[in-house]
Automatic annotation (TrEMBL):
Domain N-acetyltransferase: 4-168
Keywords noted in UniProt: Acyltransferase, Transferase
Keyword Acetylation included in the entry's annotation: no
Domain of life: Bacteria
InterPro entries per UniProt: Acyl_CoA_acyltransferase, GNAT_dom, N-acetyltransferase
Pfam families with a match to the protein in the record: Acetyltransf_3
Alphabetical list of SUPFAM superfamilies matching this protein: Acyl-CoA N-acyltransferases (Nat)
Entry's family note: Belongs to the acetyltransferase family. RimJ subfamily.
Protein name in UniProt: GNAT family N-acetyltransferase
Length: 175
């Protein structure tokens, strides 16, 4: 795998991000709920980037673009940051259709966990995956996440209910 970096989105990323989201829209919407149609415009993506920056400044959430040798190949985020007392967040990620199966998600998860535990001083990261999403389950388990639950019929997509597996990962700095 070429050099992989996670970087916070900036307004300079607008064209790359819009092209990435448009190219992968159908691929993503096959397994997660759709973004509003207004998102798929320069104004919509710019607004999302500004919101991501505001969320990071307020310690509510952290979004990152996944770039491989400069090319935008995915996104990863920490959302629903809870402070104080819990110091936890929820992990989410998506890799473009052309780039799956190459270890990109695992590498990005490793990088975001390091940032979460060292820089952001989070102590627990949670994640969810549908049981049939074997790739995501493998990424989480290979990244040190442990499964702690299974909720039945807890996620609706295209009128159908799906189960979710619940995972957690704790900071090694707390040992």
């Amino acid at each position: 795998m070429a050099h992989l970096l996670i970087v916070a989105p900036q307004l300079d990323d607008l064209n790359d991000l819009l092209a990435f989201e448009e190219e992968n829209r159908a691929f993503f919407e096959a397994s997660i709920n759709a973004r509003p149609p207004s998102y798929y415009s320069s104004e919509g993506v710019a607004q999302a980037i500004v919101q991501a920056q505001q969320d990071a400044e307020a310690d509510r959430g952290y979004q990152f673009l996944i770039r491989e040798s400069g090319l935008l190949v995915g996104r990863i985020n920490l959302h629903r940051v809870q402070r104080p007392y819990f110091n936890c967040a929820e992990l989410g990620y998506r890799v473009g259709a052309r780039f799956t199966g190459r270890g990109i998600a695992k590498s990005a998860v490793t990088q975001v966990l390091q940032r979460a535990f060292e820089e952001l001083r989070l102590s627990r990261i949670e994640a969810n995956a549908r049981p049939e999403n074997i790739g995501s389950v493998r990424v989480l388990e290979a990244s040190g996440f442990s499964r702690y639950g299974h909720s039945r019929r807890s996620f609706q997509l295209h009128g159908q209910w799906f189960d979710r597996l619940h995972y957690e990962c704790h900071s090694p700095l707390l040992s």
